[in-house]
Amino acid sequence: AEKIDSTTEEKLKCSDDVWDVFRELKNERLEKIVRTECVRFWSFAEIEAWKQSGKVKYKQWWTAVDERVCPSCWKLHGKRVLLDREFDEGVGGIPRHPNCRCMITWF
């Protein structure tokens, strides 16, 4: 694993906008990590909001439906599960992996 230097770490702690730090660093690995974790946070928050609404019962997995979709995501494409269940072992939401382009919808 790559280490984040102390200057970068300090910028991340003090930054009001993580995307400003992201643009400044221009590091592909860091870009992948930031993108993946932002999607993970967004997905978690969205599923929690669906639960709190009391109206959503199911969630469904969708891929980008193109040649870049990985086999593990293809396996889940179109799969519908109860909102509080996992799609697959250990997979409750997106992203399934770094650079995952899948999305989840509700029913």
Low-confidence spans: pLDDT under 50, at least 5 residues?
A: none
Mean pLDDT: 84
Across the major sheet, the strand order is 2-1-3
- Percent of residues in beta strands? 5-15%
Amino- and carboxy-terminal Cα gap: 39 Å
Q: Pairing-aware structural class of the strands and helices?
A: alpha+beta
Number of strands: 3
The main β sheet shows up as: 3 strands, antiparallel
Q: Which oligomeric form is depicted?
A: single chain
**Helix/strand order:** HHHEHEE
Radius of gyration: 16 Å
Strand-helix topology:
Layout: H1 6-14, H2 18-25, H3 28-53, E1 58-62, H4 71-74, E2 80-82, E3 103-106
Antiparallel strand pairs: 1-2, 1-3
Explain how this protein is built.
This protein has about 110 residues and is of the alpha+beta class. Helices cover about 45% and strands about 10% of the residues. It contains 4 helices and 3 strands, in the order αααβαββ.
Summarize the structure.
This protein has 107 residues and is of the alpha+beta class.
Which short descriptors sum up this protein?
alpha+beta; three-stranded antiparallel β-sheet; about 10% strand; about 110 residues; 3 strands; globular
